[in-house]
Amino acid sequence: MQAATARAGANIALVKYWGKRDARLNLPAAGSISITLADLETRTTVSPLPDLADDELLLDGQPASAGRIVPVLDRFRALSGCDLRCRVETSNSFPTGAGLASSASGFAALVVAADTAFGTGLDLARLSEQARLGSGSAARSIFGGFVEMAAGCRVDGHDAVAHPLLEAAEWPLEVVVAITEAGPKSVSSTNGMNLTMSTSPYYSAWVDSVPADLDRARRAVVAKDFGVLAEVAEASALKMHASALAAQPGLIYWNPATVACLHAVRALRDAGTGVFFTVDAGPQVKAVCLPGQGARVADRLADVDGVVQVMESRLGAGAGVLA
Ligand code: 2P0
After folding, report:
1. Mutate which of 147, 189, 190, 195 to test ligand 1's pocket (most atoms within 8 Å of Cβ)?
2. pTM: predicted TM-score of the whole model, two decimal places
């Protein structure tokens, strides 16, 4: 056993994942399509140590609850036959828990580091499965560029894994993240989707609508058709939020600056800029831009009332070992 460090980029879904067919195995009710980011990343070191009684987590330098990572490490202990507990040190290059997909890059980096630390040598599909068991969206961050996550149909979930659609370099879109609130989000994705599943009258309509969006988005990615991808991605985000808004009590992830950014993105597009928006389970707005247009979009969103920070990222590679 050896210490190992891995990195993984956050990912942003263009066709959203919102709801599960099995909560215990974290199996999604429908597929999703995402882009993996280069510049918003998690770096994680897993150190199996003989003198530890329990797994320990340091998040951005501070001791944190290891509750969600212990089951992940338990699976690597079972696969390797090595029972050592681990010190896990992880840091994000962006605000944790603010709707910027830190669980996606976090669990992807964790399983890749653990795979090396425990010498399990899993292939990418099995790493994606292990990441999914930590957090559904993490299955996608194993891969770079444009990625599709399958809902699968097996009860054991072995077919609910991600696969790459197109490398980042083949269509180097740019992403601008407008941060409208730096604190942690009020309702976690897991709790928000559970509430939507159990109470929203629009949940089944949302799930039923996803396969057609996946077909359209997949074709748009392969054809590099930005106009079609913009239409399907904005519609997917708005439908996901509509299903959450109709939960009991309704989930309102947006603040006034969120809405102002959506209008600003549409105004930019009407004026000829290649850009579309998406919003996850938080108040931040992600603007996806044609190559070369990110700087202009970042300048405009930085001027929107209530935007506290703007981050820019290129698309990037999948998760990998650093040392
Ligand atoms: C997505 N989100 O497709 C969607 C859109 C948030 C909104 O995947 O319960 O943190 O751990 O599987 O992965 C966030 O969900 O939820 C997410 P769990 P996760 O990116």
Report:
1. 189
2. 0.96
